[in-house]
Amino acid sequence: MTRQLLAFTSKRLQIFGVAFLILFLILNTQSALSQDDELFIADEPSLIPDADLELERSDVSNHWYSPINELGITGSLRGGYWSSNRLNDNEGDLITSSIWLTLDKRLRPGLTLYADGHIDNQDSFGGESTDHRVKETYVHFRTGDWDYRLGRQIIAWGRVDRINPTDNLTPRDFTLLSTATDEERFGTEAVKISKVFGMQSSLTAIWLVNFKPNQLPPANTPGFQFTHSIPNDHKQYALKFDQSGGDIDWSISYFSGIDLNADLAITGRSGTDLLIEKKYNEVDIFGADFATIIGSTRYAVEAAYTHTKDPSGLNDFIKNSFTHIVIGLEQDFGGDLSVITQGFYRSVFDYQDPRTISDNSRKAVASLSALANHQLDKDEYGLSMRIGKKWLNDTLEAEFSASTLLQRHGYIVRPKMSYSINDNFKAIAGLEYFDGATDTIFGLQKKNKTAFSELRYFF
């Protein structure tokens, strides 16, 4: 089965490689074509400076050119230090190195080729091997009121800040050592078609051709041996109606597909160890969001209901159906200072406490699965905040973010500073600190607390 999966993956990569080469050859014949502006579907506005969502290529000076820039290629060379990795072990003092590349080339009016990826080593002077990832590679085509994207792409949904109940289509790599939270995202092969109505409304249909899950830090639980299999499902689809650009921005959405986060199930024993399978089950998710700006304050609400394969709550190894709601308030204080505060709430339907299961093995696995999926309690409450400030003509930026649970002791704080030394160099330093009880998602990540620093060279 593994050999067949590797063969299938290799064949798919070859197909994408050939397609990319053909389009690149076309690209070189299009240099004389017009570079006029295209129809732009605007995202809803935000008050706070958000470096994670800005394209890094915007840091490159508009007065600095090279042959690769003329081809539409930008990127950065990065070197950094991390006092810990994100693998829940005791490895530390890591020197990282990577190259990030982006191809964003208009082939002709209305037709764009986009690709994004990186080659990295998360322990350059240790035993870690060099890895790579093609995060996105797609063709973007616009004609009239229709917008098409075909290929591997990141699809991010939601209007609140970072904790997004409706963002369930494409995954994140939570083990990646990156100073920018949004760089954890990576794409999935998909077909995305949007129809624009007027200047503010759009209807989007998405077909996800394959499935990729979130990559989470390993639990490293003694007595457990984990395996997982990736579903080969081509029946994932999503619909979204979005209203943006008016006094009130809002959307409603629906997703039918595979859960990005796994459920845990016992499949057998190996000696004294339990064999645990990470199973990715089907879900249906109904979502909605809303945002408006009144004066210097932005208000946002985002909610989703997730219907799982265990709506009655009788299966210990499948998460129950649940709701997830986030309410946010974003205040602009002037002088490039903004603050976001949010409250989040999860409620589990037909809740059964896994810690009351009589069989010790089933109880241990069901409790760990419930903890990882925020279902250890029937109701979960929490607060998050993010403060952003800029100085020196926006060359010096500071951000402080934190999140905490209210009914249990658990939290994370993340201060970060960045300084643009000149048009091509940026220095970044920060801290991620986890703490809490072992029965919280933050307490499980105590070993991942880390200080980090990084120097980036943009080209």
Task: Classify the beta-strand content into a percent band.
Answer: over 45%
Number of domains: 1
In CATH, the architecture is Beta Barrel
CATH class: Mainly Beta
Question: How do the helices and strands follow one another from N- to C-terminus?
Answer: HHEEEEEEEEEEEEEEEEHEEEEE
List the helices and strands and how they pair.
Blueprint: H1 2-27, H2 67-70, E1 73-84, E2 92-108, E3 111-121, E4 131-143, E5 146-153, E6 188-197, E7 201-208, E8 224-228, E9 236-243, E10 248-258, E11 263-270, E12 273-279, E13 282-294, E14 297-307, E15 322-334, E16 337-348, H3 360-372, E17 379-391, E18 396-405, E19 410-420, E20 425-436, E21 450-458
Parallel strand pairs: 8-12
Antiparallel strand pairs: 1-2, 1-21, 2-3, 3-4, 4-5, 5-6, 6-7, 7-9, 9-10, 10-13, 11-12, 13-14, 14-15, 15-16, 16-17, 17-18, 18-19, 19-20, 20-21
